[in-house]
Amino acid sequence: MKKLIIKLFVASAVLVGSLEACTGLQVKTKDDAYISGRTLEFGIFLPTSAISVPRGYTFVGQTPSGRNGKKFVSKYASVGVIIGNNEVILDGINEKGLSCGMFYLPGGYTTYSTTTSKNKQKTMSASDFNQWILSRFATVDEVKKAVDAGEVVLSKVLTEGFPPSVQPFHFLISDKSGKSLVVESIDAKLKTYNNPLGVLTNAPTFDWHMTNVKNYISLSPNNVKPLVINGKEFKQLGQGSGMHGLPGDYSPPSRFIRAVAFSATAIPEVNAQKGVYQVFHLLNNFDIPVGIARETHKGVIYSDYTMLTTVRDSKNLKFYYKTYADQTIKMIDLNAINKNVKTIKKLSTMSKQTYVDISKKLY
């Protein structure tokens, strides 16, 4: 089994640029809660666990020579999900309502720094960076200030739990006020973008996606009015004519446009709890079943699919998730966990859903 997993990882390292299709978006509810969420896709199975990280927990950034880079201590407790045994959160939320998620940015757009004796004390891996944000900051403005000031350097490090190649990530950060920020490592330097849409997918870079939105400004949630030509009236064939032309494929540019269209036109729910369900429903539009997006390598089919969907309530400090194998929504309440324990707590997300037989209720 171990040899098979290694072979799959090696093969997926070749295909990974086109076999990772995460989508993130955000909505606001009528009670001023910002609810954000994302999907996590990959071309091979990645074991995930739910995790809680307490205050006061010490991390040391990973460099090519080991965990001897930037040292930081958790100022804030956080919860989220991890991959494999890599005990840093890839997607989660902290006790101040700040959320952060890692998204793929393949295609040669992402380049990390070279670790040197001069920058080693600032260095960490891309996955460490996500945890650093959740552990140390309360707002998007704080994150932007620290990143722009050069407080951290991202190094070329193999990410535990992923295939054996340096993984290209960019990051979507959102806070309780609704502000969002994208961070990308371009030309070995961290670049920040204010993100008024709260949306992110994958390649190309975020600024390209924002320009591409201009190609779709005619989209509307409202149906098109009838058209009269030479006295003949032509009406829409059915509901949804205002969204005619919305791209429907699973490429990153198309998913970005759909995420903008769906989140921007969503009718605000009355409260955060209903907003959570709304975001899950919106993200269902990006759910990729096994086989829809795939590639073949040496006779083996690798199919991108939605392994995990997460939603974060920044107002009530709750983290929700569901998996491909279990569509039952699980919730972690940051208000209910012990934030001052000494150790990280983990729980596998690998549950399996069963159906409910209601036949006897119809007797």
In short:
With 363 residues, the chain is an alpha+beta fold.
Cα shape:
globular
The figure for the number of domains is 1
CATH architecture: 4-Layer Sandwich
Q: How many helices does DSSP assign?
A: 6
As a whole number of angstroms, the C-alpha radius of gyration is 21 Å
Order of helices and strands: HEEEEEEEEEHHEEEEHEEHHEEEEE
Uncertain spans, ≥5 residues at pLDDT below 50? 1-18
What class would the helix/strand composition place it in? alpha+beta
User: How much of the polypeptide forms β-strand, as a percent range?
Assistant: 25-35%
Strand order of the largest sheet: 13-12-11-8-7-6-3-20
Mean pLDDT: 91
Secondary structure: number of strands: 20
CATH superfamily: Penicillin V Acylase, Chain A
Structural description of this entry:
This protein is of the alpha+beta class and 363 residues long. It has a single domain, classed as Penicillin V Acylase, Chain A, CATH 3.60.60. The protein is 19% helix and 29% strand. The chain has 6 helices and 20 strands. The chain has helices spanning 2-15, 126-136, 140-148, 206-212, 252-265, 272-284; strands at residues 24-28, 34-42, 48-53, 58-60, 71-73, 78-83, 91-94, 99-104, 123-124, 153-154, 169-174, 180-186, 189-194, 227-229, 232-234, 293-297, 300-313, 318-323, 330-333, 345-348. The strands form 5 sheets. The chain has an 8-stranded antiparallel beta sheet with strand order 13-12-11-8-7-6-3-20, covered by helices on one side. The protein is globular. Mean pLDDT is 91; it is low at 1-18.
